[in-house]
Design goal:
This protein is mostly helical and 225 residues long.
Length: 225
């Protein structure tokens, strides 16, 4: 029980750090990470709900897709945990955006610097979640479910949907706003950079803990997959 409490505490800490990364990316104004691109773009176009709540809506859709695909193989307890954690993440995202709402960005170099900072913060938050190892957020769990059903590798499914999210966000922004607002060069940079940043954190962790490289890689893969 103590270990479970420790793992969930670590995971929620990772969620908060990741939400800060996403908040900094929105403040930079150069596009968010691919997973957040669609809800952020919709939040710019439609103020009925906050960014965090649009994240929740997308999470519900991703959970529904999992249930439809896995059917009898779907684990109700895992779905419940995913749902709770997804709504916690939505709340934390709104909270993090409010925390830095007073931050003013006026020049492109500052925007780019904030965007780079957001990638490192987001990558650290995701890495912490891996270390918690208790659950997956709906977006990643949906990728896993699609991989299980289609026989495709998880990594390939993730890349496909990251690109798809960016394309859909770009189309929505152009159709409604006539310009790219929710997705820009920062989204593309985040798509390639965050995964490598997570590997960098894992590399330093294994150096500090003297963990064998292969064992360290397997540990992260087990938590992700």
């Amino acid at each position: 029980m103590k270990q479970m409490v420790k793992n969930y505490t670590l995971f929620i800490l990772g969620l908060f750090i990741a939400s800060l990364g996403v908040a900094f990316s929105t403040k930079a104004g150069l596009g968010t990470s691919p997973v957040s691109a669609i809800p952020y773009s919709i939040s710019i176009m439609n103020h009925t709900l906050t960014f965090g709540w649009w994240l929740n809506v997308c999470s519900v859709v991703q959970i529904a897709i999992q249930v439809l695909l896995l059917r009898s193989k779907c684990k109700p307890v895992e779905i419940i945990i995913q749902t709770v954690l997804a709504f916690v993440y939505g709340y934390l995202t709104d909270f993090s955006c409010a925390l830095i709402s007073g931050l003013t960005v006026t020049t492109y170099p500052v925007q780019f610097l904030l965007m780079a900072l957001s990638c490192f913060i987001l990558g650290f938050g995701i890495w912490i979640q891996f270390k918690g190892g208790v659950a997956m957020l709906p977006g990643e769990a949906m990728n896993r479910a699609i991989g299980m059903v289609t026989g495709k590798r998880y990594e390939n499914v993730k890349i496909f949907f990251d690109v798809l999210y960016i394309v859909i966000s770009a189309v929505l922004c152009f159709a409604v706003l006539g310009q790219l607002s929710g997705v820009r060069e920062g989204s593309l940079i985040a798509a390639f950079a965050v995964g490598n940043i997570i590997k960098l954190y894992q590399f330093f962790f294994q150096k500090i803990t003297h963990q064998q490289p292969q064992k360290a890689i397997q540990s992260v893969q087990q938590n992700v997959l």
